[in-house]
Amino acid sequence: MRRTQAPIDLNALQAFLAVCETGSMTGAAKQLGVSQSAVSQAIAGLERDQGTTLFDRESRPPRPNVAGRALLELAGALLEHAQMVSTRIGDASHAGMLPVRLGCVDSFAATVGPELIRAVAGSARQISLWSGLTPGLSKQLHDRELDLAVCTQTAINDARIVEIPLFSEAFVAVVSRSWLAEHRNADWRALAPEMPMIRYTTRSVIGQQVERYARHLGINSPRRYEFDATDPLLSLVAARLGFAISTPLCLWQARHYLPEIAVLPLPAGRLGRRDFFLLHRQGEWEAFAREIATLTRRVLEGSIQPALARALPQMPPDALQ
Questions:
Q1: pLDDT per residue as tens digits for the range 210-227
Q2: How far is residue 224's CA from residue 137's CA, in Å, rounded to a whole number?
């Protein structure tokens, strides 16, 4: 059975190359700035790891044998590649050039995400944007498949994860604009007796949060329609097939439905808001995390919030904070 060689030690390979170039252990030691015994030990270790001798010790000066000549042909390229890798990692780390993997819940990725990409695109920073549900994003961050994550829940049992509060948004009742025109003085309490509640599935965090809040409000609508996304949910609301509880960001994500829907404020309270957090590992990407937080607030205050106020004048002024 053929013996499996150990990976080549690059320091030992450098010593081997120096001996070949200078023709002696002494010359190699002088070239590398180490002791002769260090060079001898490196060569001996390299030969031991590869299971073969590399020099003809009977010749003076020592010359590489057949195995040594084969290694000599590859040594320069191997060391050059290793140096290139080291240089690129060092340059990227110091210049902030390493690609950053940012995961976001879907509503954030579809609304704030494009503005983040546009802002970052003007710099040398490389960014990969991923979207998904909070539980999956949290696991990806924990497993180091993501560098940062924007989530709506922070139940990560890891003291190394830093949580930066980004913003919060209020839950609002969503109804067909034509229905509200016929019931001008109606508030949210008039919805459940008149029509079913169209829900987000409880597979998502928002679905779970809405369900808790609806129970808190005493809304006991039968479970008939459930969706993972806001688009199909609003399509039924616009068609007057029911009402929904959603958030400003979700509504902006499906903004092509805004001319057909209206919102009604819901009672304020701890359960009546959805919080967003930016998560990252302690000591990693801290400057970029601050940059994302600043950009997020700028996009919300300068773009999304005013646009929502124009499209849905019934939206509470504190719906996005």
A1: 999 999 999 888 888 888
A2: 29
